[in-house]
Amino acid sequence: MNSTAARIRDAFTEKFQHTPRLFRSPGRINLIGEHTDYNEGFVLPASVDKAVYFAIAPREDDQVQLEAVDLGESFEFRLDDLSKPAPQWPVYQLAVLDQLQKAGLEIKGFQASFGGDLPVGAGMSSSAALECCLLFALNELFDLGLVQLEIVKMAQRAENEYVGMKCGIMDQFASVFGKEQSVIQLDCRSLEYQYFPFPMDEYLLVLCDTKVKHSLADSEYNLRRQECERGVEILQKHYPEIRSLRDATPALVAEHEDELGPTIYKRCKFITGEIQRVQEACALLLEGDLESFGEKMYETHDGLQHLYEVSCPELDFLVEQTRYNADVAGARMMGGGFGGCTINLVWREGTDRFEQKMKAAYQKEFGIELPCYRVTITDGTAEVEV
Ligand code: GLA
Question: Angle at CA 127, nearest 5°, toward 123 and 131?
Fold first, then answer.
């Protein structure tokens, strides 16, 4: 057991005075394929060595006792009252319980201490990890009989319906289905998936954490989703068979540029291009051509910055810094946007040098110390032996 897992277990034992069961759900990275999940395209995520942990035990009544170890705060409620609380953080746990109730799955109360080493708001999907972890744990504790994919879909609905963030399925899928040293190519339409080994002998993946999350992140995310749906509606008038942007191509979108109007056109252009790019990128990965893979990452960033318009000055600055750095094969913003991390494909031997340069540049420009995380790809959600 690592020290973070032990810390969460010990917090539980100290507070509740008995031995819990312990569960872990990792955060995710995404190599390429951004904002494609809710357009039924492809994504290429992996689960990482930073995770959320739940130490948990059942109760006989319907009381729920939560302890947020990293915040030093507690919250209690009864299962028959899931109204939104004053502190923001229990919203994710309530969202999960709301889903279980909607599905008619019965549980008893429980006590849980949770926390971890996954930075919150850094675009590594801490909320998805938290929801998946609790659902997985309750499924085990109360024998609910949910299979992995049901957990994934329920966690996504929890986010969509209770939290109000209309996210796609990538984060939850990656957190649950992650596999050591592998990236997952997921078809977000059929939910078929394939693992590819990610070779880390010559290159490492390094995340640079801007430490910012701009307040428009969630509202702009939901707006992008609506803009894509609007694009589909317009294209459907000509091609009724188009169900999502997955069914369109950049060429087809270009034919209808005037009718789509400047904003919707840019959104559709990016998404259809990005869906194609993921497939090309996967082929490059299989050939072991990481240099060309890195170029695709830059193309994705350019699209996210100028066409999809979900980047921000901090992310653009960090990507810009890498463009003429010989140690870097590719870089881009990662996740929903408006803050969080950039993902960088860095020549292994040059990683120290890379981090030093990035930290110095970011400090000088924004006065913020830049955390850099070297990624290790680990297994997805599971119980941890106490
Ligand atoms: C967030 C969402 C995901 C996905 C990414 C962008 O992480 O939760 O579903 O849409 O943004 O690729």
Answer: 150
Residue 125 has pLDDT above 90, yes or no: yes
Report field, pTM of the whole predicted structure over 0.85: yes
Helix%, strand%, coil% for the chain, nearest 5: 45, 25, 30
Q: Which residue has the tokens 């140690």?
A: 327
Q: What's the token pair of residue 227?
A: 């803009």
pLDDT of 169 reads 98
Dihedral of alpha carbons 258, 217, 92, 147, sign: positive
Q: Is 45 in the pocket of ligand 1 (CB under 6 A)?
A: no
- Pocket lining: 168 vs ligand 1, CB cutoff 6 Å: yes
Give me the pLDDT at residue 217, please: 82
* Ligand 1 atom, smallest distance to 128 CA: 8
Q: List, for residues 251-291, the tens digit of each pLDDT value.
A: 999 999 999 999 999 999 999 999 999 999 999 999 999 99
Atom 2 of ligand 1: nearest residue by CA position: 167
pLDDT digits (tens, 9 = 90+) for 233-257: 999 999 999 999 999 999 999 999 9
Does the C-beta of 206 come closer than 6 Å to ligand 1?
A: no
pLDDT, tens digit, 9 for 90 and up, residues 321-361? 999 999 999 999 999 999 999 999 999 999 999 999 999 99
Instruction: Please return the burial class of 323, using the count of CB atoms within 10 Å of its CB with bins 0-12, 13-18 and 19+.
Output: exposed
Tokens, residue 72: 């030093």
* Ligand 1 atom 11 nearest Cα: 336
Q: Is the CB of 185 under 6 A from ligand 1?
A: no
Task: Name the residue with the closest Cα to ligand 1, atom 9.
Answer: 168
Catalytic residue among 171, 209, 247, 327: 171
Whether pLDDT at 199 is above 90: no
117-147 CB burial, b ≥16 within 10 A, e <16:
bbbeebbbbbbbbbbbbbbbbbbebeebebe
Our answer on whether the CB atom of 159 is closer than 6 Å to any ligand 1 atom is no
171 catalytic per annotation: yes
Expressed in angstroms and rounded, the spacing between residue 336 Cα and the centre of ligand 1 is 5
